[in-house]
Write a structure and sequence with these properties.
The protein has 187 residues and is an all-alpha fold. It has a single domain, classed as Hypothetical protein af1432. Helix 2 runs antiparallel to helix 3, helix 2 crosses helix 7 and helix 6 crosses helix 7. The relative contact order is 0.14. Bound molecules: fe (ii) ion (FE2).
Length: 187
């Protein structure tokens, strides 16, 4: 499965939606992390891009989330490492590979960075700082649904300090901020 096939497969199911933007954000972060580790950026990016492919059809039964996705991906010949990472992000398989661990940590991080960007004057990542993200992480009421421990697990799971991890993800997301529809004025 190449990137175009993966994109079309996901876009067919999610359309032009916040979940699609979230998948693109995860793709960008996963590619950047793969570069950091000298790993396969194409494969890591693909895992991020496809990980929530079934989210729309599973939203009423999250126990099926990732299982359905794995079936779709298998039937389209996705690499088993990608399928395992997708399963692992919703605790449907043990996260044994570094890629699977990275996806699990990146998933809540992109959501949190998006939430932190949207309250900036620019409504964008362009003027968002690591300091500001970390301050928000300490505010329990802000984006309360996002699990901070899963973000901080970058240190234990990936061996990257939180500051560097957030910097990598912020930079990756800022690089595609137009695709993420960040910075678009809501008037
Ligand atoms: Fe996700």
């Amino acid at each position: 499965m190449n990137r175009d096939e993966a994109y079309n497969l996901v876009f067919d199911r999610l359309g032009d939606s916040p979940t699609m933007a979230h998948c693109l954000a995860c793709e960008a972060c996963m590619r950047a992390l793969a570069d950091r580790f000298g790993e396969d950026a194409a494969m890591w990016g693909l895992s991020g891009l496809v990980h929530d492919i079934d989210l729309d059809e599973c939203h009423s039964d999250m126990e099926r989330h990732a299982l359905v996705g794995a079936e779709i991906l298998n039937s389209h010949g996705a690499d088993d490492a990608v399928v395992q990472a997708v399963l692992g992000h919703n605790n449907k398989a043990e996260r044994t590979s570094r890629m699977a661990k990275a996806l699990w940590v990146v998933d809540p991080t992109t959501g949190f960075i998006t939430a932190a960007a949207l309250i900036r004057p620019s409504r964008s990542t362009s003027d968002l700082t690591i300091k500001s993200i970390k301050k928000r992480m300490k505010d329990k009421r802000f984006a309360a649904a996002v699990n901070r421990d899963q973000i901080r697990a970058c240190e234990k799971e990936l061996g990257i300090e939180l500051n560097e991890f957030l910097q990598i993800c912020l930079q990756a997301m800022d690089g595609i901020r137009d695709q993420l529809k960040l910075g678009i004025a809501q008037e």
